[in-house]
């Protein structure tokens, strides 16, 4: 397991390889939804002994940021999905007006946190970015799914802006960031025309096939036009790592406070259990952002 711990020791960012197959006391039909997303439920416990885990569904690559109160998640549209021993799992069910898909989740507590909380993603070569606060008296974590579409939409920067709206503009100097293994520029071949259309012109083809207009990431970063794309041997590769780090720095989170686990899922991680969907379309590993309750 790859792990990074916050300066205050309360936030833990974990990447869990090869979910294990273990028995469960929960009825099979109630576990179906969870297992579709995380493989097997027991493996994601990490250091969790008790608490609540939130399971976003990032399949639509939206740029929506969900702010969830840990005191009353039902008010934010999250519902209990299943309980496994002392851990409660929450998901966001679709409605007529809301698909339920979320690519960024912020957990905050208005009162001192008395139980552990966490957010879990099961990525497929996409970067997962975690955020925490250095102050042990601030109950907050965030987890962001930043695939190429989310990166083009600056989902990481939008998440930090949402955090600033909660805690004030000066909060970024106290934030720490974490970056999971994902497909790096050594292996992530990408079409140059798509890069120009999405990252420079702000036109991203959505899952339904229709383009959508966005404010290009470059209008925020003011970088050279070819920043984020690497040419090699007549082919082009996407450098999401450079783009995500630039977005974090632009948001006020320095390199010194960014913990990048620096592993490419395609050429390094897959054999170690940090699976690449390019090698196995059904394989996933787990990324878990956890905030531990306050010590009494």
Overall body shape: globular
Helix content: 10-25%
CATH architecture: 4-Layer Sandwich
Protein structure class: alpha+beta
SS strand fraction? 25-35%
CATH superfamily: CNF1/YfiH-like putative cysteine hydrolases
Q: Within the largest sheet, what's the order of strands?
A: 1-2-17-8-3-6-5
Distance between the termini: 29 Å
Biggest sheet overview: 7 strands, mixed
Counting DSSP H or I runs of 4 or more residues, the number of helices is 7
Number of domains: 1
What does the oligomeric state look like here?
single chain
Assigned CATH class: Alpha Beta
Question: What's the Cα radius of gyration?
Answer: 18 Å
The number of strands is 17
Could you give the order of the helices and strands? EEHEEEEEEEEHHEHEEHEEHEHE
Mean pLDDT: 81
Poorly predicted residue ranges: 20-27, 41-46
CATH topology: CNF1/YfiH-like putative cysteine hydrolases
Structure description:
The protein is of the alpha+beta class. It has one domain (2-183, 259-291): CNF1/YfiH-like putative cysteine hydrolases (4-Layer Sandwich), CATH 3.60.140. The protein is built from 7 helices and 17 strands. Strand 1 (2-5) and strand 2 (11-16) form a beta hairpin. The relative contact order is 0.19.
How does the SSE layout of this entry go?
Blueprint (H helix, E strand, L loop, with lengths): L1 E4 L5 E6 L11 H11 L12 E4 L10 E5 L9 E6 L2 E5 L12 E5 L7 E6 L5 E7 L6 E7 L1 H5 L2 H13 L7 E5 L12 H9 L2 E3 L5 E3 L4 H4 L7 E4 L2 E4 L1 H11 L7 E3 L4 H5 L16 E6 L5
Parallel strand pairs: 3-6, 3-8, 4-7, 11-16
Antiparallel strand pairs: 1-2, 2-17, 5-6, 7-10, 8-17, 9-10, 9-11, 12-13, 14-15
